[in-house]
UniProtKB/TrEMBL annotation:
<keyword id="KW-0662">Pyridine nucleotide biosynthesis</keyword>
<dbReference type="Pfam" id="PF00890">
    <property type="entry name" value="FAD_binding_2"/>
</dbReference>
<comment type="function">
    <text>Catalyzes the oxidation of L-aspartate to iminoaspartate, the first step in the de novo biosynthesis of NAD(+).</text>
</comment>
<feature type="domain" description="FAD-dependent oxidoreductase 2 FAD-binding">
    <location>
        <begin position="22"/>
        <end position="401"/>
    </location>
</feature>
<dbReference type="InterPro" id="IPR036188">
    <property type="entry name" value="FAD/NAD-bd_sf"/>
</dbReference>
<comment type="pathway">
    <text>Cofactor biosynthesis; NAD(+) biosynthesis; iminoaspartate from L-aspartate (oxidase route): step 1/1.</text>
</comment>
<feature type="compositionally biased region" description="Basic and acidic residues">
    <location>
        <begin position="502"/>
        <end position="521"/>
    </location>
</feature>
<keyword id="KW-0560">Oxidoreductase</keyword>
<dbReference type="InterPro" id="IPR027477">
    <property type="entry name" value="Succ_DH/fumarate_Rdtase_cat_sf"/>
</dbReference>
<keyword id="KW-0285">Flavoprotein</keyword>
<dbReference type="InterPro" id="IPR003953">
    <property type="entry name" value="FAD-dep_OxRdtase_2_FAD-bd"/>
</dbReference>
<comment type="similarity">
    <text>Belongs to the FAD-dependent oxidoreductase 2 family. NadB subfamily.</text>
</comment>
<dbReference type="Pfam" id="PF02910">
    <property type="entry name" value="Succ_DH_flav_C"/>
</dbReference>
<dbReference type="InterPro" id="IPR015939">
    <property type="entry name" value="Fum_Rdtase/Succ_DH_flav-like_C"/>
</dbReference>
<protein>
    <recommendedName>
        <fullName>L-aspartate oxidase</fullName>
        <ecNumber>1.4.3.16</ecNumber>
    </recommendedName>
</protein>
<keyword id="KW-0274">FAD</keyword>
<dbReference type="InterPro" id="IPR037099">
    <property type="entry name" value="Fum_R/Succ_DH_flav-like_C_sf"/>
</dbReference>
Length: 554
């Protein structure tokens, strides 16, 4: 199967204004805002975000942030749990950086003003989630950790007069110098203030922190801004994207009926960490015997078990039972989830919670080294848009906030050695293109069916053929809906290519026609780049075997 060809760059009017800064940060979640706060010591910083500054995925993180903060815990134990969840594909050096630098990074966050829940003695209250063998999840407001972290970071950024912020702006493409290095970005500001319409920002460095690809699927926990923009932009710029086939589906997302689309309410893994358990329609527990941690098994295992249960019973959801918590525990520990359930007519104090898997997190993304550098000089990436090697084939619960935090610190530390020179943008001779904005609902349906929790060669081929037809539909005038649609089909094309090539089941990539993990042939990573194909470009996949010294049994 040949992956669908996509535009080499986005069709857009020529920039009507220009500006110059040292560092452009794309995205305003934990990764982007941390990077901005650290980079401000090195030069002028501009943060560009698609909506208001607090609109990204960070604010929706319920469970918490994982770090070895307890005397009973250790970075080494956190490392081992991460490697096991990553199913043999984690980069041990990246994981070691995460778990050893993580505790201090969390303390730095606290000094910045983030408030975590504490015990009576004043120590941070730590809980457990799937895949963890220790209580190491720091949380805030019970189940509002992301919102508290985002609040603290936004407040710190707004206190910093040397950080500029452009909201309601979609970055279109990278500006590149003759040698391919970063020279800045083009962007579209959606009618806000003096900087209106298409503009160009020249910069020495661009840091991608634009989040994930959740809107590629019909049901997701991601906000509406998660349209794969950073991954698509990086691919068009010639960057290497790694392991895009590993899309994590959160096992317990509130099931709102067959017609529900878009962002769906998450029922945090922390609910199971506190003792809730999954049951089928007969009230029978089905995770016992599936894994040593039962309902707290890594997410890929729980999502697969739920999907099998649904297929076997001919149902479209299962249930989570947390009735034994009682009213007070629900109100104190999970007030956000309690309110969300009740707003949809479900009272978890007295009723079972209907749940089903939904797209949650991309473990793959734009490849970076340990300093957050991508394969394009001057382009850095951190957070969900990046593939640092931390997550492998399946992210361990609550490692995502920590990864964004730690690798934003690492990027700033690397840039402190010296920013690259400001480059002159070269003339872009690639053929521009655009996809019809109206294809998105059908694209989401196609990807959910053919490249969702369960995959096969035939299903991926059908998805690829369907995406190719969607790309051929005549596009309208350039604008945010069309640019987002083009970014989505670009990422879909690459994901389909990767999912087709990897003929095994590992972590969050489940091939029913290759149901077993195959370390002999597939112990390694898949790197994707866009290759010119006439007026368009097509993703090509290269398999990179793991070196023996880095191989993990996971």
């Amino acid at each position: 199967m040949t992956a669908p060809a996509v535009p080499q760059r986005l069709a857009a009017p020529e920039p009507g204004w220009t500006d110059t800064v040292d560092v452009v940060v794309i995205g305003s979640g934990i990764a982007g805002l941390t990077a901005a706060l650290k980079a401000r010591e090195l030069g002028t910083v501009l943060v560009v975000t698609k909506d208001v500054v607090a609109s990204g995925s960070t604010q929706w993180a319920q469970g918490g942030i994982a770090a070895a903060l307890s005397p009973e815990d250790s970075p080494e134990e956190h490392l081992q749990d991460t490697l096991v969840a990553g199913a043999g594909l984690c980069d041990p050096d990246a994981v070691r950086a995460l778990v050893t630098e993580g505790p201090d990074a969390v303390r730095d966050l606290i000094e910045l003003g983030a408030r975590f829940d504490t015990q009576a003695n004043g120590e941070i209250s730590l809980t457990r989630e799937g895949g963890h063998h220790r209580n190491r999840i720091a949380h805030s407001g019970g189940d509002a950790t992301g919102a508290e972290i985002e609040r603290a970071l936004v407040a710190a950024v707004k206190r910093a007069p040397d950080i500029r912020l452009i909201e309601h702006a979609l970055v279109i493409d990278l500006l590149r110098a003759e040698d391919g290095a970063v020279a800045g970005v083009t962007l579209h500001v959606m009618g806000e203030g003096q900087l209106d319409g298409i503009g160009a920002i020249r910069s020495r460095v661009v840091i991608l922190a634009s989040g994930g690809l959740g809107q590629l699927y019909a049901a997701t926990t991601n906000p509406s801004v998660s349209t794969g923009d950073g991954m698509a932009l990086a691919l068009r710029a010639g960057a290497k994207v790694r392991d895009l086939e590993f899309v994590q589906f959160h096992p317990t997302v509130l099931w709102l009926g067959k017609s529900a689309k878009g962002q769906q309410p998450l029922v945090s893994e922390a609910v199971r960490g506190e003792g809730a358990f999954l049951v089928d329609h007969e009230g029978k527990r089905f995770m016992e015997g599936q894994h040593e941690l039962a309902d707290l098994a890594p997410r890929d295992i729980v999502a697969k078990a739920i999907t099998r249960q649904m297929l076997a019973a001919g149902k479209d959801h299962v249930y989570l039972d947390a009735r034994h918590f009682g009213d007070e525990k629900w109100r104190v520990r999970f007030p956000t989830i309690l309110a969300s359930c009740r707003s949809h007519g479900i009272d978890p104090v007295r009723e079972l919670i209907p749940v089903a898997p939904a797209c949650h997190y991309s473990s793959g993304g734009v490849w970076t080294d340990l300093n957050g550098q991508t394969s394009v000089p001057g382009l850095y990436a951190c957070g969900e848009v990046a593939c640092t090697g931390v997550h492998g084939a399946n992210r361990l619960a609550s490692n995502s906030l920590l990864e964004g935090l730690v690798f934003a610190h690492r990027i700033a530390a690397h840039l402190a050695k010296g920013l690259p020179q400001l480059r002159e943008p070269a003339v872009d001779t690639r053929v521009p293109g655009l996809v019809d904005a109206d294809v998105v609902p059908e694209l989401q349906r196609v990807m959910t069916v053919g490249a969702g929790v369960i995959r096969s060669a035939s299903g991926l081929a059908e998805a690829g053929a369907a995406v190719a037809k969607l790309i051929e539909q005549p596009a309208g005038e350039p604008g945010t809906p069309g640019w987002e649609a083009t970014n989505l089909v670009t990422v879909a094309s690459a994901l389909i290519a990767a999912g087709t090539v990897r003929e095994e089941s590992r972590g969050s990539h489940w091939r029913e026609d290759h149901p077993d993990r195959d370390d002999q042939h597939w112990s390694g990573n898949l790197d994707l780049t866009l290759l010119a194909d006439g007026e368009r470009a097509r993703p090509g996949a290269t398999f990179v075997p793991q070196s023996k010294e880095n191989r993990q049994d996971g």
